[in-house]
Structure formats: C-alpha cells, structure tokens
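Forum: Protein Structure Q&A
Topic: Joint prediction for protein chains with partners

I've read a bunch of threads here and the consensus seems to be that you should model interacting components together rather than docking separate models afterwards. I'd like to see that in practice. Below is the full input, 1046 residues plus whatever partners are listed. Could one of the regulars post the assembled result?
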Amino acid sequence: MDKLGGVFNASSPEMEAMVDLTLFIIIVSVAIFGIITIAITYILIRYRRRSADAAEPRQDFGSTKVEIVWTVIPALIVGVFFFSTIKTMYAVNPPFGNKEPDLVIIGHQWWWELLYPKSGVRTANEVHIPIGNKLLVRLQSADVIHDFWVPELGPKIDLIPGHTNHIWLSASKPGTYLGACAEFCGVQHANMRIRVIAETQEEFDKWQEEQRRIPPSPTTGEAALGAKLFQEKACTNCHLTGVGPDLTHLPSRQTLAAGALENNPTNLAKWLKNPEKYKPSSYMPDMKLTDAEVNAIVAYLEALK
Amino acid sequence: MRFNARNTYMNKNKMLVSFFIVSESIFFLMLILAYVNFHRSVTDGPTAENSLNPIKTGIFSLFLLASSLTIWFAGKSLQRKNHFMLCIWLLLTILLGVTFLFGQGLEWVGLIKQDITINRNVFGTTFFTLTGFHGFHVTVGLIMLLILLGLAIAGDFRGPESDAVESVSIYWHFVDGVWIVVFSVIYLWAFV
Amino acid sequence: MSRIPLVPEITEPLPSIRESEGLLTWVASIDHKQIGIMYLIATLFFFLVGGIEALLMRIQLIRPENDFISPEVFNQLFTMHGTTMIFFVVMPFLIGIGVYLVPLMIGARDMAFPRLNALSYWLFVLGGLLLYFSFFTQSGAPDVGWFAYTPLSEKPFTLNKGPTYWALGLLATGIGSVASGLNNIVTIITLRTPGLTMRRLPLFVWMILVTSFLLIFVMPIITSAFAMLLLDRLLGATFFMPATGGSAILYQHFFWGFGHPEVYILILPAFGIISEVIPVFSRKPIYGYEFVAGSTVAIGLLSLGVWAHHMFAVGLGNVFNAFFAIASMLIAIPTGIKVLNWTATMWGGKIHFATPMLFAVAFLIEFVVGGLSGVAIASPPIDWQATDTYFIVAHFHYTLFGGSLFAIFAGVYYWFPKMSGRMPSERLGRWHFWLTVIGFNLTFLVQHLIGLMGMPRRVYTYHDLPYWGDMNLISTVGSLILGLSVIIFVWNIITSLRSGMPAGNNPWKAWTLEWATTSPPPVHNFDLVPPVNSRRPLWDLAHPDMPDK
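Posted by a regular:
Agreed with the consensus. Here's the joint model:
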C-alpha cells in the first residue's frame, strides 16, 4: 500500500492528520453515494413501466415535512465536517509567529533554489531534513507561480512572486519522498520535480557540514581543464548568479535537472551534450560542446563532491 | 391570480437598459477595486496626490453633472410634447458631455507629457484604465445622444413617451453616477 | 365543458441547407428557433474539436515518458481543450437550447429582442474564430491553461501571442453572453402568456432565469480581468506583474470571482433539463417544485461567495480559508435537495427508459459523485492534497461531463423530435448511452486515485512510478471508448434527421407548452396557446377530470 505513495504513505504528523480527515470524508461520501445509488436502483426496478398502459400513476407534488428532514440532515453532516476541517487546518497549519525560517525555497522556471539560513547552505532541487523536527519553510518565487508539493509529507503551497508563504515541513521516518511542482509554470512544469530526503539528525548534520564545505578547485588533469572551461564557456553567468541552480556538491544529489535524469556521470554527459533532448525548452542552452569538452566539465563537476 | 403579461408598465426596453447598467456597474466596480487595491502600495513615482488636479477635474465634472440635469429637462419636454425644447435640451446635453470629455483629454495629455503613462507604475495603470473606460462609456453615450438628436431634428419623438429617449436617459444618468464614484475614489480620497 | 382544439398534427420540415436561398435565410435569421439550432450545430463542431484535443492528450499520457506530443503542443492542447469545452461547448449549448425553448415554453412568439439574440450568436462565433485563429499563427495557440494565471500569461514569460487571442475571443463571446442573459431576463419577465405566473414557470425556465442573472453579474468580472490582462500585455500596464508593483493574486480573485459562478452557469440549465425529463418519463410531476426552484435561487446567491476555494493553496490564511470552506460546503445542501427531489419524483412512477431518461438517471449518479468529491475539496486540508492534481480533473469532469454533458445529451434526445419533427433512433441512442457511461467512468474514476497518489495536473509526461502507467492506460482506453461513443452520437443525429420516424406534436406525452405546437413549430410558434391554469397545461387538457391545482 505504501508503494502507492501520496495519501497512502503519510509520513509526517501533518499528513497523518490530513489523511484522517480524508478517510472520514471518504467513508461518509461512499455511504451517501451508496444510499442514493441503491435507492435509485431500487426505484428503477420497482417503478419501471411494465407495459405501454395509458393509466398515469398517482400524481404526488411533494411534502414540506420531507423537504425539511432532508435539508436538516445534510446540514448536520456539513456542520460536523466543517468542525473537523477547522481542527485539522489548525493542526496542519498553526501560526508561526516571528519564528525565523529553517529553509527558504525560491521557485524558478523549472528548478528549486534552496537556502538554509541558519547554516548558510545553498543548494538546489533536493531538500534534506532531519526526521522528527517541524521545520518552518519560507517560499518565494523568482518568476511565475509555482507550487511546492510533497504528497507524503503534507500540504501543498504556492510560491507566488510578490508574496511570501510559509509552511511547516516534517517527516516522521527516514526516506526519500518525491514531490512535484503543482502549479502550471510553463513548458517544463512536468519536469520541475522535488526530492525530500529525510534522515536522522546526525546524518542531516553531516550533510550540512559537507554542503557548507567549499570544495577546492581541481588543479590537475581533466577536472582542471573542466574548471577552466566552466569559466570560459560562461557557465558561471547562470550557475553562480542564481539564475541557474548552484552546482556545488552536484554529485551528492540523486537527480539532475530537477528530476529529469538520474544523477550519474553518463547522464551528466548526455545532459551537457544535448539538454534539449531531456528537458526540451528549458533555459539550459545547448553550449555546443565537443565530446572532449563535455568529458572535462563532467570531470570537474564530479570533483565538486 | 389575474395577470396580463403584455401590460405596459413592464416596458421591455427600459428593463433591458436597467439590467444592463446593473451589469456595467459590476464592471466598473472591478476596475475601482483594482484602483483601491493598489492605491496605498505606490511607493515611488507618480501618485494621485502628486499628479492630479482635483479642482480642474472637479470643474469639468460639473459640466457632466449638469448634463444629467439637461437630459432630465429633455425628458420633461418630451412629456409636454415640446419638440423644440427637446431638441435644445438634447443638444445642450451633448455639448456639456463633449466639454467633459475635452477636459478629460486635457488632463490625459498633461499627464502623458510628464511621462505619467499607463505603463509607468500601478497608479498610471489603474488611473488611465478607470478613467479611460469611463470616457469610453461617455463617448458611446454621446453617440447615442447624437443619433437621438438627429432623429429628433428629422421629426421623430413627438412625445409624450419614447422608449429610446427614456432608455438613453437611464444610461446617461448611469454614466454620470459612475463618474461621481470614480471622482470620489480617485480625486477626493487622495486629497481628503 | 368546451374543448379548446390543439393545433393539428402536421410535420413541417425546416428549410434544407442545400437550397442557397435557405442558407441565406439562416445566416440572416432573427428567429429564435433558427438561432437556437445554429447554436447547437456550432457547439457540436466545437465539441468534436475539443474532443480531439482531449484524445491527443490522453494518447500522449498513455505511458510514462511518452514523446508522441511535445510539451509545447501539449500545453496548447490542454489550454484549448478547457477553454473550448467551457466557453464554446457547454455554455453556448445551454444558452442556445434556452434560446430555442424559452419563448416556446412561455407561450411567446420570440425572444424580447430577436436582433440582440442574433448578435449574441454571431459574437459567440466570432469569439470561437478568434480563439482558433491562434493555431494558425506562428507562435501558436495559447498555452497557459484555461485560467491563464499571471504572471505566466504575461510578457516576458509568454511571448507567444496566443493569450491575446484567447482574451479577445473570450471577450467577444462574453459580450454575447451578457446580451443573452439580459434578453432572457426581459423575455421571461415580460412575455409570458396570460396565466403563466412565475410560480408556474417550467423549471427549465426558472433555471435559465437564475443563470441569466448570474451571467449579467459575473461576466463583467471576467471582462474586466481580460481588459486588464490585455492592457498589461499590449500596453505594458502593470495590473498583474509583481515585478513592477502589480499583483498576481488579484488576477486570481478576479478570475475565480467569475470562474466559480461560471460553473453554476454551466450546471443550472442542465439541472433544468433534468427537471423536465425526469417527471415526463416517470409520468409524475416534479416532487417539491417550490424547493427545486427555491434551492436554485439559493445556489445562485451562494455561488457568488465561494470563489476563493480555488485559492486554498495561495496562502491567504486560516481565517480566510475557513470562511470560504464553510460557504462552499453550504452550497452542497441546496444541491443535494435537488438530487433528492429528482429521486423522489421517480418514486411511485411508471418509468419509461427512453434514451433521454437513461442519460437523466446516469446524470443523477455521476453528478452525485462529482458533488461529493466537491464537498471533500471544500475542506482546505483535503484540498491541500487534491488541488492541482488529477483528483480535481476527475472532480470537474464528473460534474461537467457526467453532469452538464449527460444532461445535454438527455436534452438533445428529448427535444430532438420537437426541433426536427423526427424521432431519434432508440437503438443508436442506447449504444451511445452505454458506450458513454463505460468510457466516461473508465476515463475519470481512476483519476481520483492517481491524483491522490501524487500526479499533478497539466503535465505532458510523468515518471514511471508504481501503477502510474497502468492507471493512465486505463484512463486513455476509456477516452478512446468515449471517442467511439461520440461517433455513434453524431451518426444518430445525421441518420435520424434523414429518416427518423415522424414525431408528431408530443411524442413523449409531455406537459409544457412547447409540446402544444407542431414539430417543428411554425415560424410564429403557436397557432393557439392553450389556457394556462397550472404548471402543466397539457396535463390539464388531457385530464380534465383531475387537473393540477
């Protein structure tokens, strides 16, 4: 069942609260649907015209009493549902007061910029969180409206230019949780995917430390040539200015191009050679690199552990 | 319950115009809401306070208000079957309306010369849109009034009733009413 | 007791389109029956186009990482499919069939403003042409979704001219819709035949009346949003551009301020059709007429105050969300009342399963599914999972297809004899019906599940996650069956027009005034309008010993 993901694998207290409410309404809805469908089926069978006889049945115009009964009952059901809704809403989205965010996410067409203000870590597309902690996330957008959605962990929330949003993010067990951008944001909306890696506090701290470390620029071999090309081909114009994702520690991530490809050197080479094939119309240009140049840059990026 | 569907107190033409102005009011309401929404968020550049002249626009507004009076008199003349005065009052209404539009034009030209345009900032955007659509509705009204005047001069509208005159009248009062609201929101609210 | 003769049973065919004189008569017509039929023909055309757009999308989604269609084209397809089905199929069909039926049902000779009626139709056609012209331009059709959220739909994010055509086309058709709303209101208030009080109006007319009020109140909202969007795009205004002081959220408020009442505009006339069909084929009057009419007014009013349930994920705060949640849940109550009234109408009746009734009963069941999923997503915590996923796609297809479109099919089969003078084929009707029910549910039921499993909407492809491929495959197979059902439907219309059985005045033994004249009606509609002393004048005539009170 867990394999189905989404609501079938609630992995945080927020999501569990939401799933409880969802189950409640599903059960009530199925019951209502069942009653109505059975009633209609019964009526269709019992009251079907048996022969083309001309006699009309008894003409019944209605009953005010009946109308009142079947107005009040739905109203009561709605009332119950509304109160459960409010309770769950405040459980999932309690006010955050003046708390500083633990993670800042800035949406771009079609990648996620991630900043951890408390540690200064800056990365892209792959969120790491320690389990058992309720983190406050601030969400903004650099261009159009996006939406951050990791179904197994909690609600979705829009990233809107000119408006700042906050949600609480937590995971109760370690794992890799997949998500997606859930507001149509242009041609590669489908490939703006998210990964949340929930890990123990020790593993998270280790990850943060590694991310904060600035890897030394390679000085020998193909990687050094790649480092030079990275400057000459003006990759830095996007990848060091925030226009494109930060590539430091790229090898530590599970995917490339916000989920378009699994992250390994072969795929990285394929991506560099022909980005159009794997994420058509994304803003990564085809830099028209020769195979040798591609290999050098791959070596450089792979060295940025 | 006795009922006659073809009774004349439910005049279909006037009913149409009345419901139409209800619909148009919502359109203007949306433009006004947009203006109000952005009013306080203009931090730099032109704003209502530093760009507009409520006195000058107020004077031209009086011309528009007066035109509501003249069209009311036109209605009275129609009822009294005074065809000549009907034409005069219609003509005056048109002249007053044109004067108002002329004032609007002067104001727009003045603003544009100072580089205050629709794409300058949210004030420019909302100001020109709101006053522009109002001016457009005034223009349509003037065209209808001209048609009425032309028909009247050619001999029509002998009175005491005319759906066409009364309907255009309702529309013209609406256009005037919208201006009172727009003027209050843009000019009075900024300066009071 | 004197008997008032009904008009004699002559079937008079409408002018054939092959006569060149005939075609000109149609194009220049201001007769509400011809205009109504032109609406229906045009919407059928757009329905086929919108359906092809859907099929292409479903084929692209049949398996993960498919490359049948590029993302650019896919994004144009979903934008055009939504826009077409809403503005160029369901809305004009319901307006068109209203234009045909309302004067007949109230015993009038035409609408209050026949020329305005024709203008509405031609504006609708112009709007469709403007919208579809975009496919032929270099940059292609709009590709920003049928709600065209800003700033995506503005420069610099969309340099393609598509959204401009979109806004212009919808503006044109929108002005026509306001004119139709005004025309309907004045017609219904002033042109009813003597004896036809408001409390005796056929429910279809009541629904058209409430819908018309909704139209005149909410079309101006979207008109203003389009005007502002066009000013932003064409003149560099900054209503919705956050980078220069504008507000993306304001656009959403304006859009949904229109958009939500719009879905009630799309469903209320459908409710009207069902309210006419179920009683006739159960041989009983509608159960609780006052409550069905009254709950319609309640829905109309409530619908103006629920728009932000489309914005629960925008982050507008718990209090704001709570208000819109309760308002949206409340609207389920008058809607539920109707379903119960329709069901009670069938109780104790003698149900005749002709094709109109098959679709009407299926409507009830499908619409309940759509309504229940709607109550679920009225709750913000549930919506925070479901919004912008295939769950929502499932929800609105159950209400708009299983709801409005099924009612439309019921209406087509029900009034086809009146409009054409011929009976539609029952055999083909049943094939159409069953293929539709099977195809529709196969396509959309599974989408509830895949949405909750994590598939967002408006994606041209997806990764090979567990069962995603299988479920999308089921959905695509369902859509192909639906395609087949539409072919049968069109075939039924064509062959029945050519060689269906002559229908006579009142083949269904119905009770409202449109059945008191020939099929099709003469140009002046009625030679003689029967006396109206109750809600069912023809019942009273057929049963002088037990007339309705």
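The radius of gyration of chain A is 27 Å.
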